[in-house]
Amino acid sequence: MTSRPAPDQGRPEPGEPRRARRGSRTQAVSVTLDDVADAALRQAGQSGLDAVTIRSVATELGISPMTIYRFVDSKDELIDAMLVLALSRMEVPHSSASDWRQRVIDIMVAWRELLLAHPSVVQMLVNRRVPAHSEGLGRLAEHVLANLEDGGITGEEAARTFWRIFSFTFGHIVFERPRRDIDAEAQAEAGRAMAATARLRGFERVRDLAGELTDIAARGTLESSLKVLLDGVGARPSGT
């Protein structure tokens, strides 16, 4: 089993140059935590998150796995670093809409598209919480909270509303991602299968609406669903 650096060696600050052995020669290699996370993100994008290991990232960077351990103690910590870096790169778009609700919708729809372009990031978000020190999460929250404030939603109610919006949007992403390429014939077949099961089990309402229940378009868009949510929040007395 490979040993880790002794505790008294400490963990260098991110960005500090370090030396890594390549073959039989020791060369100065400047490596930061972001470099490590970036290499891991590239591997995840090419081969999937399961393919990412401390050793594979070290090999790509041309350094010893021991150097990686000076930044992270485990693959779990590496994935946290990957998530923080990926989210930090996601810029929050500007919306010129006059209505605060529409500005929030524009922000979350654009954020959804950024996530859908990075399946490995979606997988990380499904399986773990976003580290609280994430700059990307903070940036997203700041923009959404500013627009909620324009709508008169502040304080604890604004915090609760942000997480409702975030959870709703992410749930939509998780649900939509594997269904983006389902064609009309596949949807029709799903409807027939649902109707057959409903008839067999006596689910009369499901039988009657099987076609609609399996029609992806009938489920509505993120935009329309967020509008319903925000209309409800905006119409509700504060604190309820």
UniProtKB/TrEMBL annotation:
Residues 30-90 form the HTH tetR-type domain. Residues 1-27 are annotated as: Disordered. GO terms for molecular function: DNA-binding transcription factor activity; transcription cis-regulatory region binding. The keyword Protein biosynthesis does not apply. InterPro entries: Homeodomain-like_sf, HTH-type_TetR-like_transc_reg, HTH_TetR, Repressor_TetR_C, Tet_transcr_reg_TetR-rel_C_sf. Pfam families: TetR_C_1, TetR_N. It comes from Nonomuraea fuscirosea. One of its GO terms (biological process) is negative regulation of DNA-templated transcription. This is TetR family transcriptional regulator. Residues 53-72 bind DNA. Keywords: DNA-binding, Transcription, Transcription regulation. Signal peptide: none annotated.
